[in-house]
Structures are given as structure tokens and as C-alpha cells.
From TrEMBL:
It comes from the Eukaryota. This is CAAX amino terminal protease family protein isoform 3. The chain crosses the membrane at residues 24-47. Keywords: Hydrolase, Membrane, Protease, Transmembrane, Transmembrane helix. The lineage of its organism: Eukaryota, Viridiplantae, Streptophyta, Embryophyta, Tracheophyta. One of its GO terms (molecular function) is peptidase activity. GO terms for biological process: proteolysis.
Length: 136
């Protein structure tokens, strides 16, 4: 209970959402599946079918491959969010207030932490997938 109180003090007031834990779980599982399937299987397979081999790519081509993977997964996640959350549209106009004042630094730090964890997850899934390593 002390941890929940500390989080509420850091965030401020409670933020209520119109969706339930089921919707959150659905989005999280679909995101994980899309991240793994598209980022670790589909994009490497498409690169292999196009004739690219990772061992022959320069650093710039590897960076471009990584960018294409990230953009593709990002578009998938946007589609997942749109599909799962569109039933709650439109939200009230004051539902998401943005201001440079306040405790936004906590939100930025949390976003950076989420980015690092998703990057680590991608690294671990790409090393666990032997077929993906063969394709590249």
C-alpha cells in the first residue's frame, strides 16, 4: 500500500480511463505478439526474400534495416491501439491536458525506461530465434 501511495504522490491526482483491465491486457498482448512476429520474423524474412544478408550489410544498411523494423513495428502498434481503443472515441476534450509545468519529468523518465526495456526484449527475442539468425 505504501508503494501505491508513493506513486499517487508522484503522479498527482488519479487519472481515470474509460477502458478496463481487459482492454489493457488485450493491447499489451497484441503489442508483444506484433513486436515479436513482425520485428523478429516478418521483416527479416522480407529482407531475406529481397536478397539481403546481414553479414554483408554495411553499418549504414544495418541502421536502415533497424529503422525499417522499428517503423514497421510502430505502425503495427498504432493500428493495434486504433483497433482496440476506437470504441472509446471521442474522449472528453480535457481528458489529456498537456502543460510544460508540472511533473512531466517523471513521465519522460518512465517513457525512457519503457524504451530501454522494449529494446532489451527485442535483443533477447532476436537471439532466441534461430530461424531469424539464418535468414539474416
Amino acid at each position: 500500500m505504501h508503494a501505491a501511495d508513493a506513486v499517487l504522490r508522484a503522479i498527482g491526482s488519479r487519472w481515470t480511463v474509460p477502458w478496463t483491465a481487459e482492454t489493457i491486457l488485450q493491447v499489451m498482448l497484441l503489442w508483444e505478439a506484433a513486436f515479436w512476429f513482425v520485428g523478429s520474423w516478418m521483416v527479416p524474412f522480407a529482407a531475406h526474400m529481397a536478397g539481403f544478408s546481414k553479414k554483408y550489410l554495411t553499418f549504414r544498411w544495418q541502421a536502415l534495416f533497424s529503422l525499417v523494423t522499428d517503423v514497421t513495428v510502430g505502425l503495427d502498434v498504432i493500428a493495434i491501439l486504433h483497433r482496440c481503443l476506437s470504441q472509446f472515441h471521442p474522449l472528453p476534450s480535457d481528458w489529456f491536458k498537456f502543460s510544460l509545468r508540472g511533473k512531466w519529468l517523471f513521465d519522460v523518465a518512465l517513457g525512457c525506461l519503457c524504451f530501454l526495456s522494449s529494446t532489451g526484449y527485442h535483443s533477447s527475442t532476436s537471439t532466441c530465434c534461430p530461424l531469424c539468425l539464418l535468414l539474416l
